[in-house]
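Lecture notes, continued. The same structure-token format from the folding unit now serves as the input rather than the output. Read the line below as a description of shape only.
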């Protein structure tokens, strides 16, 4: 069975702005694919075209035999994210990396992630740190719960959100809010 390779027509015009793309890999090969692409980029001097290769990880707390243990798990198993400028050369290098099955997109045509998708995944942007910790009291600055006061239960720096326990109709209710929606109470 022969595989037809579809390259996007717009690859010939080299955009000066890099975008995030997703490639599908064999399961369990994500880190190998990342290492192979980074090595190829270095060997071919393509740092100006392929800027970042990422396998997003998250910390997960597992409880085994009564012991808490924090382990890192892949957020998107079977996928690798690349920040790159799409050209014929970069497409060829990535697509022909051992372990890569295809770019994500219709008919294997690479489709860049939108800014909203990149933001929602917590990749690509600068890491935003806020001056709050779990257990701190905060006031909701905007949204349907504006002026409510609650206690932070969780902080997710990747998604730039916090889970705040608010008293709604006399019950403590966890509510997920963006960093911009809260103000720390001193």
């Amino acid at each position: 069975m022969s595989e037809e390779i579809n390259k996007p027509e717009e690859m010939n015009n080299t955009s000066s702005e890099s975008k995030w793309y997703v490639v599908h890999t064999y399961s369990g090969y994500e880190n190998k694919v990342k290492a192979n692409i980074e090595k190829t980029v270095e060997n071919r001097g393509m740092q100006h075209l392929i800027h970042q290769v990422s396998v997003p990880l998250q910390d997960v707390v597992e409880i085994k035999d009564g012991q808490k243990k924090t382990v890192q798990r892949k957020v998107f198993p079977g996928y690798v994210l690349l920040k790159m400028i799409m050209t014929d050369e970069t497409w060829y290098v990535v697509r022909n990396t051992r372990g890569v099955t295809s770019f994500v997109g219709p008919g294997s045509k690479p489709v860049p992630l939108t800014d909203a998708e990149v933001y929602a995944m917590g990749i690509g942007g600068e890491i935003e740190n806020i001056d709050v910790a779990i257990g701190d009291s905060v006031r909701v600055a905007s949204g349907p719960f504006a002026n409510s006061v609650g206690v932070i239960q969780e902080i997710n720096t990747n998604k730039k959100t916090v889970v705040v326990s608010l008293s709604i109709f006399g019950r403590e209710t966890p509510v997920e809010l963006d960093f911009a929606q809260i103000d720390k109470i001193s």
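Point for the exam: The two ends are 67 Å apart (CA to CA).
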